[in-house]
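pipeline/complex-builder :: batch 7 item 3
reading input block
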Amino acid sequence: MTESDAPGSSTRSPDWFPEEDRGGGARGSGSRSAQRLAEYQRLREQCPVAWADDHGGFWTLTRHADVKEAARQPGTFASGAPFIMMPNFGDQIPISLNPPEHAAYRRLLNPYFSREAMDRLEPTIRGFVVEALEPLVSAGEGDVVSGFCQPLPARALAALLNLPDAAYIELIEQIAGFERMGWDPGKVGAVIAEVFGNHIGRVVAERRARPLDPGTDLLSGVMAAEVNGQPLSDDIVIQIGVQLIAAGHATTADALSGVMYRLATNPDIQMELRRYPEKIPTAVEEFLRIETPLPEIARDATQDVELHGRTIRAGDRVALNYGAANRDPEAFEHPSACIIDRTPNDHLAFGSGIHKCLGAPLARLELRLALEEVLSRTSEISLAGPGVQTTGLILTGFTSLPLRFKTP
Ligand code: HEM
C-alpha cells in the first residue's frame, strides 16, 4: 500500500468516481474512490496482512473476520494513538485507554447514550433537523454540507452536553476548520488544547459552581463519579468532553453528507424510503456500511501474532481497516451494492469490541431523523452541481454538496 492509496489523501469531485453496481430496486451507486476500493480488494484477496513503510511503518488488516477479531482482542491489539497518520496528541478518554481502566469510563458514560437518553433528546434534535432543512428545501437548492450536515451534529452535541446552542456552533466551526486544514499535528494540538480545552474548561468550572442533575447531565455525572475510588480531576473531565466533541462531530457530518449524496444519486432508494419510512433504520445501517466515514483506526500489537503467514511483532502498529472490512464479499453478499434492507448487516462502521463507538446511538438518531424529515418534505432530491469529496487524513465525506429539492 502506498501513501496515496491510504485512506484520506485526496479531494475530488464525486463525478470522478465511477459508479459501482448500479442495480435495480433498492440498490445504488458508490461515492468512494474506485482506486481505493480496488486497493482494498487487492489487499483482502492477495495480501490480507499488508506492510507499509509510511508513517514509521505499519500493518493493515483488511478482511472482515481479521479486523473484527483484532478489534475484539484489546489485550493483543492495544489502543493508544488512534490514528496511523497522526502523532498522538495526548490521552483521549476513553478511546486511547485499555483494560481494565477503559471499562470504568464506559460504565460511567454509557447511560448518557441509553435508549431513554436518546428518547429525551429526540424532539430537540428533530427540531434542529427541521430548522436546518426548511430554508434549504424552500429555496429549492443549496449546499447541504454547510447548511445541514455540519450544523446538525454540532447542535446535537451541544444538546447532549447541555451547552449553550449558539456558542457551540462557533466552536464546532473550529473543528471543521482543522479537519479541513489537513490535521497538521501542531495546529491540531494547539486547537484542541486552547480552544476546546478552554471552552470545556469554562463549562466544567460552571458545573462545579452549579451542578445539574447528574442523572441526565453528562458533565455533572462525570464530575460526581469516582473511578477506582477516586473522584475525577477537572483535567480528566475536560479530556472526556473534548473527546466527545472531537469524535462526535466530523464523523457524523461526514456520514450525513455521504447519505445525502447517496440519496441524491439514487432516486429508487428515495422512492422506496418515502414509501416505506419504517425501512429507514435498516437503511441507515447500510449507508453506514457502504460509506464507513471513519475507515481506519490504529492499534499496537502487545505480543507477536502469526496471521496468514506473516508475523506481526510486539510493538508494531496495526491499522484496522474498517472500510475494507465493510466491503468484504466473505461477510457481505454484493458488497458494493447499497441494499437498504440488508439483514443481517454485521458492519464495522462503529468498530467492534470494547471500543465500539460510544456515540453510535446518537449518530443513528441524527441520521434517522435527517432521513425521515428530508424525505417527507421532498418529492425529489438530486445533485445541483459537482460536490467536493474531501478525504482529510482520517475521515471520508463531502466538504460541499449542492443539492436540488422538489416538493410534493
Ligand atoms: C456516524 C458517526 C460516527 C462514526 C462513523 C463513528 C465511528 C467510530 C468508530 C469506528 C469507533 C471505534 C474506534 C476504535 O475501534 O478504536 C468509534 C469510537 C468512539 N466514538 Fe464514534 N463514530 C460516530 C459518531 C460518534 C458520536 C456522535 C460520538 C459522541 C457523541 C462518538 C464518540 C465516540 C467515542 C467516545 C469513541 C471511543 C469509544 C471507546 O473507546 O470506548 N462517535 N467511533
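note: The chain is about 45% helix and 15% strand.
queue -> next item
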